[in-house]
Design a protein that fits this description.
- The protein is α+β, with helices and mostly antiparallel strands.
- It contains seven helices and six strands, in the order αβαβαβααβααββ.
- It folds into two domains: 73 residues, Orthogonal Bundle (Arc Repressor Mutant, subunit A), CATH 1.10.10; 98 residues, no CATH class.
- Strands 2-1-3 form a three-stranded antiparallel β-sheet. It has a three-stranded antiparallel β-sheet with strand order 4-6-5, with helices on both faces.
- A hairpin with a 2-residue loop joins strand 5 and strand 6.
- The chain is rod-shaped, with a radius of gyration of 23 Å.
Amino acid sequence: MTPHLAEIQAAFDHEPPRSPPPGPNDSAAPQPNPIRIYVACLAAYNNGHLHGEWINVTDEAHIWETVQAMLFASPIDEAEEWAIQDYEGFEGAEVGEYYSFENVVELADYIRERGELGAQVLNYYGGNIENAKARFKEYTGEYDSLEAYTEELTEQTGLEIPDRLAPYIDFKAMAHDYEQSGDFLTFEVGGFVHIFWAH
């Protein structure tokens, strides 16, 4: 961490984030479409039939009941095996073909809460949802740019900057230095920059 940034971080160690992580009603987490998966009967698929069901991801029991009904109605007798062959509403997060329904529900709940930003953070961690959730503890807020955040950080340290010197402070260069230092993680969503401390 750069010396200047260390001073800034020390000033914020006991302060709450500028704004809470985006929730389901925030601009960063719109949900225009339902979160759902398409589960197909593998026995039918392997015999040249397309047989499956789109299922809204609500809870694990609902998914299991719908899948069992789908398999029972399969054109292949005694069909038992299934696979997730498509999905919608996960904001760019990936759903594996053989994800357990427990994992699918956990992922859907996470996306409902965090939206596209949550999906980007999840993908950054290679799909590790526990690491992604933990990163939101270091969420700082939504800004027009990292430069704007750098200016706010500087102002909130309580440093008095004389008016005659203010025009000469290069917040853009400071933002670049902070970005290169690895002290921040940034994600762009909806034209805004979402910033996390990386320590």
